[in-house]
Request: fold
Amino acid sequence: MRDNGFSFDSALAPKRQYQESMKLLNSTLGVFFAGALSLAAQNKEAEEAVQTEGAKVGHWTMDFDAAKKVAADKKLPLLLNFTGSDWCGWCKLMDKGVFAKDEWKKYAGENVLLVTLDFPKDKSIVPKKYVERNNDLKTKFAVRGYPSYVILDSDGETKIGQLGAGRDKTPESFIAEFEAVVRLSPANVEAYVKENPDKADAFKAAIKGVDDAKKALSDWIKTRPERNEENTKKFEAFQKAIKAAQGELSKF
Reply:
């Protein structure tokens, strides 16, 4: 029987060509998207890396002088992060649980200059020109442990508070702590008093109440009290007094 020149191979050829073309297209797209994702990851990593030069709101930098200039220009506070980036467990906990979160990044991007003052084991992490300066700032602000988060007013000199690490801290809780400190900066206190002259004396008295309560606890701790049930109760009483004073201040 004549086959009239018909061939199954020739009939299937267009389909095979289409399949081969699709495989090539899919392979090309796969490479493209993989490259795009890799580039995006690299860009994100670069964006989140600590800068060694210059400063901008909401981005960590080692350049304290640049951060001070931006803070003064924009009237924003500074957060100094005294850390041991490659060895300090509590530092890494805060980096992961607070500073790496979008909630913190969004807040910081509008409200604070971030400065990293690193004391790593790997000395190549910090440029040599910053090593002595970091030690000077550590002494100046009486930093005794890591991490310590020193908050400065927009002048880059006035210390208005200090925060620490905590296992249960979140971006929201840390922001609340930060704002409670910044609220009592000299500039903010002056502004509040000017806008509310009738509440000025009571407001200042409430601030003094918090300061006195904290000082009482600090002075007691300096006596190196023994660990016993009686002193535990005293410590709890000091904490209760601080909380009560802060409650009075929160009314303003």
